[in-house]
Amino acid sequence: MTEVEQQERQEREQEAKWYIVHTYSGHENKVKRNIENLVENRGFKDDIFEVMVPTEEYIDQKSSGKQVKERKIFPGYVMIKMIINDVTWYLVRNTRGVTGFVGPGSKPVPLTDQETRRLGVKTPQANVPMDLEPGDNIKVIAGPFMDMVAKVDSVSDDRRKIKAYVFIFGSETLTELDIEDIEKV
Predict the structure, then answer these.
(1) CATH of domain 3-118
(2) Does 123 have pLDDT greater than 80?
(3) 137-184: CATH architecture
């Protein structure tokens, strides 16, 4: 892929939205592979960019000791970052194991940026300058401190992180947060 083609693909990917499809329970990874294979074989790399099954790690403490395992956060659902049109809708909708898009009727509804962040999908915002100053109040919109209000202590533009005081357990605690996980109040 040439540099121009790669830049055009990145620009097109910025237009793409995240959609959720419902699948048969237990078929999420198979549906993911099937969609990825269809995209590769039919040449839809510029319309369907990413397919993922949201998972989380947990510690299983059965008789064999502690083991780190992975489980699906939303069994029966697969997330797809795509540009929706008649062809891509038909391709995904008629993939074996897919029962339909999430949304009213046959019209898929894209996730909002806030919803995608809450599901753990990082949206690149590298060129957006941060307009935060020490002392500003922010609201945490993702992660372990979600829905808490914090006060900015310092801002690191180059790392896209801030340090802020979060009020928990009766005292202020200094913590580091990603800029994508907060919004200014």
Answers:
(1) 3.30.70.940
(2) no
(3) Roll (2.30)
